[in-house]
Design a protein that fits this description.
single chain, alpha/beta, three-stranded antiparallel β-sheet, 9 strands, about 40% helix, binds adenosine monophosphate
Length: about 280
């Protein structure tokens, strides 16, 4: 596996593959890799000839009040996992390579990025859309794999690629979960043992709500009831909502022919858990 830390080196390596007609797949990550990330690498593997995984803890998607320095980092462990997963290139830019001094251009996606995570974390999706656009252009990838775990992010990135005419296919990979339903996340390591026991209740609540709404139950009443159950179990919910799966517009009821999603974010102690499920 090649490791690159600057843009000219990365471009030279990928350019040589591209010139031979190889298709390139990108897996953007912030490191602290787990089986969810490795599922993206496996999906990328089936979609292209060369797999590039980026590891970059992107400062522009963290607000000043969010602790960037607390984000888990494990470069040696990550590289070993990527090697074992059959990744061809690890793209590990420094902050200076990604954001040279004087940078003044950002990618801002309206509508789809405004609610939910965008409302709770102002500026977050501007950082995500900017870094993903840069990664797409740096690698010239044909395909990029993203996890359904971060559903709104997936829609934001799709919208940005489409609107900016970037010739890349966005591949959505289903959420990888623990046996008890908890979605794998780099932040799960911060759950205290009693919180870890309760954490799967979020996915259980989403699954119950999705089944009830798909079965014709009133969406608002269902979400109110599940939200109250989560609060009783110690979750502080930022949101728990039924949305159009592509536009992220809030929906009041299931509509046939329209893909819907239930999205949620909830704080358990100091750990913020994100999850979502399909309805129907
Ligand atoms: P992160 O390193 O947390 O920024 O995530 C990098 C990519 O991995 C994103 O596309 C995430 O959606 C995806 N991802 C994170 N957790 C999971 C999971 N449990 N299952 C599938 N994909 C995931």
């Amino acid at each position: 596996m090649l490791i690159h830390r600057d843009i000219p080196g990365l471009r030279a390596a990928l350019g040589a593959w591209g010139a031979r007609g190889a298709r390139i797949a990108l897996v953007p990550t912030m490191g602290a890799l787990h089986e969810g990330h490795l599922a993206l690498v496996a999906a990328a593997r089936t979609a292209a000839d060369v797999v590039v995984a980026s590891i970059f803890v992107n400062p522009t998607q963290f607000a000043p009040n969010e602790d960037l320095s607390r984000y888990p980092r494990d470069e040696a462990g990550d590289l070993a996992k990527l090697r074992a997963a059959g990744c061809d290139v690890a793209w590990m830019p420094t902050v200076e390579a990604m954001y040279p001094p004087g940078g003044a251009t950002f990618v801002e996606v309206s509508s789809v990025s405004e609610g939910f995570e965008g409302a709770v974390r102002p500026g977050h999706f501007r950082g995500v859309a900017t870094v993903c656009t840069k990664l797409f252009l740096q690698t010239g990838a044909d395909v990029a794999a993203f996890g359904e775990k971060d559903w709104q992010q997936l829609q934001v990135v799709r919208r940005a690629a489409r609107d900016l005419d970037i010739p890349i296919r966005i591949l959505a990979v289903p959420t990888v979960r623990e046996a008890d339903g908890l979605a794998l996340s780099s932040r799960n390591r911060f759950l205290a043992s009693d919180q870890r026991v309760r954490a799967p209740l979020l996915h259980a609540a989403l699954s119950r709500a999705a089944a009830a709404i798909a079965g014709g139950h009133d969406a608002a009443a269902t979400l109110t009831q599940e939200g109250a159950a989560l609060r009783r179990d110690g979750f502080a919910t930022d949101y728990l909502a039924l949305v159009d799966a592509e536009t992220m517009c809030p929906m009041e009821r299931a509509v046939s022919g329209r893909a819907l999603r239930i999205v949620a974010a909830a704080q358990l102690g100091s750990v913020r858990l994100l999850d979502n499920v399909a309805v129907g």
